[in-house]
């Protein structure tokens, strides 16, 4: 049995150096070596007063401590304060030494609710880390891969009420309206008058977090969620964009704007060659915007449901005559262009009435078949060709090792399965800091 003469060795005084007490291969050593955080001072300078009030916490310490919480999935700010006080590596990283004390947890909530509320500080920090990755040649800017994932809202799924919600018109609808009227004029139709009345819908609205959205999709958990619309660069899987929406927003709605946001911010006008997307983005507008910009878009078509009658794919489109040819070789001619951007092609009911394939073609009492073709259908067909090509198949296969891996890492290691806060702005901050932590690890 080993005995000691010191009744309480915990009270011994020792001369130690904190530098030697942190392992040489510790993650925070690499972060400290390769990431330059000095840019934070310039970003937050407008939100601090140099002449009024007590001396504030060093902004670099503030954000580095936040980063620790996201790197090590420490959800609670109180727990983060305790963890920093207990960890030698955290103390070394924050430069507070052995005798210093971690900032109080209330500092974080106050800054989030007051100093940085309504600002772009977290977005700016994320962007600067991406630019540092670009300086290290870790971002190619040639192939971007985008998808979305759901994040469980900090809300009770049972506490909600049904409300009539006014749906804000999407920006692309103005572009669509102009294209529709141009198409109608080209075919001798009158332009449609502007649609002034806003659309309203009955939706479930959470009483806990009203800004979240009720997710109800096949294969997804039902309830109140947010969506993280994320883009990664395929070279080293660096996350280049994160944008949070309520869980009931379609993936394709925000895609075009976020793509342009990245192209302008990072100067990829001449470098971006291709994008890979899931089938949820396969809309005429997304196809139109990507092809129009000269980008090779790769996304699979949505699985088609079984039809009791001939499907649209069984009709052949004759571009020169602008007609559809049915399986019995009869022509469906142009009728009109709808407000939603579809051209209606209709058959001759007299010919359909004596057609031997009538029962297989339509159940319409008027014995007339209608086929719709979007005014941007040519762009969709081009994207389908991209996806079916050998290059397209190789590009789409990269999703599993890039964007899907990025989401898995965020949820398993960094706590992105659940929202830490309530409200879209705060969830956006969580997503940006999570993505920043992932990029720094890269």
TrEMBL record:
Q: Start and end of every Transposase DDE domain?
A: 325-442
| InterPro entries to which the protein is assigned, alphabetical | IS1182_transpos, Tnp_DDE_dom, Transposase_InsH_N
Q: Where are the transmembrane segments?
A: none
Q: Which residue intervals define the domain Transposase InsH N-terminal in the entry?
A: 17-113
Q: What is this protein called?
A: Transposase
| Annotated organism of origin | Paenibacillus cisolokensis
């Amino acid at each position: 049995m080993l005995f000691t003469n010191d009744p309480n060795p915990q009270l011994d005084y020792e001369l130690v150096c904190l530098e030697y007490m942190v392992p040489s291969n510790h993650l925070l050593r690499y972060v400290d070596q390769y990431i330059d955080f000095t840019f934070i001072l310039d970003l937050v300078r407008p939100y601090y007063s140099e002449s009024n009030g007590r001396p504030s916490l060093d902004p670099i310490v503030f954000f580095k401590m936040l980063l620790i919480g996201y790197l090590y999935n420490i959800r609670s700010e109180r727990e983060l304060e305790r963890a920093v006080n207990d960890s030698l590596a955290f103390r070394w990283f924050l430069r507070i030494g052995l005798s210093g004390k971690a900032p109080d947890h209330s500092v974080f909530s106050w800054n989030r609710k007051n100093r940085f509320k309504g600002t772009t500080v977290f977005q700016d920090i994320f962007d600067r880390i991406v630019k540092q990755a670009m300086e290290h040649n870790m971002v190619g800017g040639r192939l971007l891969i985008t998808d979305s994932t759901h994040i469980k809202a900090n809300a009770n799924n049972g506490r909600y009420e049904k409300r009539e919600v006014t749906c804000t018109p999407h920006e692309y609808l103005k572009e669509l309206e102009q294209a529709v009227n141009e198409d109608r004029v080209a075919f001798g139709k009158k332009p449609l008058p502007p649609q002034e009345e806003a659309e309203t819908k009955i939706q479930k609205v959470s009483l806990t977090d009203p800004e979240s959205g009720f997710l109800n999709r096949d294969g997804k958990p039902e309830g109140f969620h947010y969506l993280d619309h994320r883009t990664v660069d395929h070279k080293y899987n660096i996350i280049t964009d994160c944008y949070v929406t309520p869980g009931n927003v379609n993936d394709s709605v925000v895609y075009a704007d976020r793509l342009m946001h990245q192209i302008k911010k990072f100067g990829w006008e001449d470098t971006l060659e291709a994008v890979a997307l899931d089938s949820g983005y396969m809309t005429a507008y997304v196809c139109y915007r990507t092809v129009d910009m000269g980008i090779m878009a790769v996304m699979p078509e949505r699985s088609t449901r079984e039809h009791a009658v001939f499907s649209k794919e069984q009709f052949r489109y004759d571009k020169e005559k602008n007609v559809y040819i049915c399986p019995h070789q009869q022509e469906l001619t142009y009728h009109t262009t709808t407000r939603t951007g579809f051209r209606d092609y209709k058959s001759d009911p007299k010919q359909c009435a004596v057609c031997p394939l009538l029962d297989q073609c339509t159940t319409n009492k008027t014995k007339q078949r209608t086929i719709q073709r979007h005014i941007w259908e040519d762009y969709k067909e081009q994207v389908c060709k991209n996806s079916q090509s050998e290059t397209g198949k190789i590009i789409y296969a990269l999703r599993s090792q890039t964007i899907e891996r990025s989401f898995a890492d965020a949820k398993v290691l960094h706590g992105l399965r659940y929202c830490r806060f309530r409200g879209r702005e705060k969830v956006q901050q969580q997503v940006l800091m999570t993505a920043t932590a992932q990029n720094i690890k890269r």
